[in-house]
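Weekly structure sync, notes
Attendees: PL (lead), two postdocs, one rotation student
Agenda item 3: pending single-chain targets
PL asked that the sequence for the first pending target be pasted directly into the notes so everyone works from the same version. It is reproduced below exactly as submitted, 183 residues in total.
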Amino acid sequence: MKKIVVGIDCDDVLNKLIPEILEEHFRQTGIRITEEEIDDWNLSKFGINGKLVFPKLDIENVEPKIENIEALKQLYDLKEKYSFLDVYVVSQCPVSSAMARIRFIKKYYPMFPENTFIPVKDKGIIRLDYLVDDAVHNAKAVEDAGGKPYLLNICHNKYCTEYTHINSLKEFVEILENILSKS
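Predicted structure, written out during the meeting:
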């Protein structure tokens, strides 16, 4: 059986990064922006300077998406059931912040082996059969490389219609289980 490789994004899939970004922007500028106002991944369109905001974020302690802790456990149960399934956290992040993401994952998703975390600049260079992500550019990169992306519904991708949207990681696990059961 051919290996099936699944990539799960960290930021805004396993954690709640956008609220942290907006809060840090408010601390720095006094200007409040809500998630409802964000409709594009290019945060500079909303006056958010990533070069000022991102260095101040404590990635290790960003709030997790609690509902995805159980879903990730279910994904690992599938991995046990289907030996041809590999699951990775694939994060488009600078190497300098990779360890903070690993510590975050170990803290909130302890079932996830540290050696399955992959920091990359371009998710399209990894052979993924499936990707769960929030960023349209990552979905495009994986699709262009032959994979099937699923976009987790979030403020900055709400107008994207090119890819399959899901409401939760649990929904993806159900889709994947259905696919695997037919293999």
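Discussion points:
- The longest strand covers residues 85-92.
- The helical segments are 17-29, 50-53, 66-81, 98-108, 136-144, 169-181.
Action: rotation student to compare against the earlier draft before next sync.
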